[in-house]
Write a structure and sequence with these properties.
With about 150 residues, this protein is an alpha/beta fold. Helix content is about 35%, strand content about 15%. Strands 1-2-3 form a three-stranded parallel beta sheet, sandwiched between helices.
Amino acid sequence: IYECARKYKIPRVLFASSNRVSAMAEPDWKDGDPLISVNDLGRPDGDYAVTKLFGEAIAREYFDLYGISSICLRIGSVMASNDPRGDKRRMKTWISYRDFIHLIEQSLSTSIPFGIYYGVSNNKGRFWDIENAISDLRYVSRDDSSKL
């Protein structure tokens, strides 16, 4: 994808990464600890997550070498039912359809040339930091799984 973007002069790629890139940090996280940030070392929980970290590295490489803008989204739990109740982890990692659409719109319209962001609603007990999405992308989560 990035090589095609370079070849055909596509100025921006929106890369669908995954929250799984830091999944091994989750068991160590306790309520009240600093939130897991995109600046923390990746701690993938399998080959799929490793490929997503690799994709983020390729995004950075193509930005640095060729100026291709990239927004990488570490997407939380999106479910067909849009209802995380009944699953403890998903209550923390859920991103509502409404918030997800807003995050995509903000990612496509931002002037920020490169960034990595967690895509999650403002759920009580979430362990991912979304402050850079709020400040860089003007992402405003309107949903919280604890209020369903």
